[in-house]
Design brief:
mainly alpha; 236 residues
Amino acid sequence: MEEPPLTSFSLTHISYDASDPIAYLCAWLALAPQILCVVYATLIWSSREMEIFLMFAGQMGCEGLNFLLKRLIKGERPPRIKTKGYGMPSSHAQFAAFFCVYLTLFLLFRHSPHPSDTHTPTTLNDRILLAIWSILFAAIVCASRVYLHYHTVNQVLVGCAVGSVVALAWFGLTTIARRHGWIHWALRSRELTMLRVRDLVVEEDLAESGWERWRKVSERRNLSMLVSSAAKVKRR
């Protein structure tokens, strides 16, 4: 009985010129969406922050739109790359554009952390710098797709445009939801309460969230240990 032919897993299969160090770097950059999804999952699991849930939901919606657009437009990839799937618009460019635009909007217009006794939050200049870094990262990811000949310049530009528009629209929708109290209402639902979902990162740095509570717990433990030690000394 003849065995069925094998095929590569195209999600991670990257073709590049092994003699070109820039192409090697671009091949690693092709994994940017997968790496960012791992970052999303890690932050969602560890922080349970509603804002990260919202950003990830928008990111996945943007990916779904790219899936539909590729099958509607049916734009071919550059002839040098022999791979399955259409190229218009670039999913990598669309993914990176959504990520950097939404993150920039969040940092500059929604995130307003307040200082505490033990922590000085990031300043506006810090957040602007972080936003610029995210934009540069997205630009490098987009350039890598053209360099590796997986997409034409037009396919990358359209991907950037679609990702940016979706990010703007999703940020606007989530802003409306916040102003009308829909996010607060959802957070009070039984399901999100069971999952311990919270909404602190809008007004706190992610590193600060929960730190004050931990500091108080730590102080109580230290006090308890001192009392216990003093009691042992007295018994002696």
